[in-house]
UniProtKB/TrEMBL annotation:
PROSITE patterns: TPR (PS50005). Signal peptide: none annotated. The keyword Cell cycle does not apply. This is Regulator of microtubule dynamics protein 1. Interacts with microtubules. It comes from Rhodothermus marinus. The keyword ATP-binding does not apply. Its main location: cytoplasm. One of its GO terms (cellular component) is spindle microtubule. TPR repeats lie at residues 206-239. Gene3D superfamilies: Tetratricopeptide repeat domain (1.25.40.10).
Amino acid sequence: MNAAALGQLLVGLAVAIVSAVASLGQSASSSIRLYQADSLWQAGAFAKALEVVEAGLQYEHDRAEWLWRRSRLRVEQGLRASEKAQQRQWYQAALADAQAAIALDSLNSRAYVAAAIAAGRLALVSHPQAKVEHARQIKAYIDRALFLDPQNDIAYHLRGRWYYEVATLSALERAIVKVVYGGLPRASLEQAAADFRQALTLKPRVVHYLELGRTLLRLKQPEAARRALERALALSPSEPNDSLYQAEAQALLRRLR
């Protein structure tokens, strides 16, 4: 089944369950609506998913679950914004949602993951000093997520990205880190590669293979990088941005030819 057909199927399933929700209690109704929101997100139907999430937030039940999901959707909106200022606004809103989810449920690993993702995206569109400030915040969120759920493959992926970004900071960013903050925790590309591999042992995802391949390229291991990137292309798209990740993997492979 191709990505478009899978997306249509997931949207159909998500919409089909709406009629069953009204007759259930609040807890069961919330669980079904959460599933519906996740299915719509997976299909890339972000506008419909946001409608479901906004409706869910009208009730008191499972507010932390709804908030981190809205954070995830706001990140998607930021990714698709054309102006950096718009992106920054979406990412700030996404981070606020994730932080609100944490305030409501401090044991929710996925809320910390959502916060790390939002802060990471915000760092990418911020000036160097703010980028460093976010780097410290991101690491704390990731560490907490992994403490709460050591099987969270996305958290390992995020820590790998954190190691990669810190290991490849520019000279200006390193100077700011040293003068203003006294430095960041040690980070290396080897640590990044190890975390991407750990993420893959927990769940094979296109994005895990992509970032492992990118890291191995920086480590000057072209054959290992090629294998990782080819595996990224071999997987069937199953998440909303997989086609974009595979296009990026294809572009990196062309550099190896």
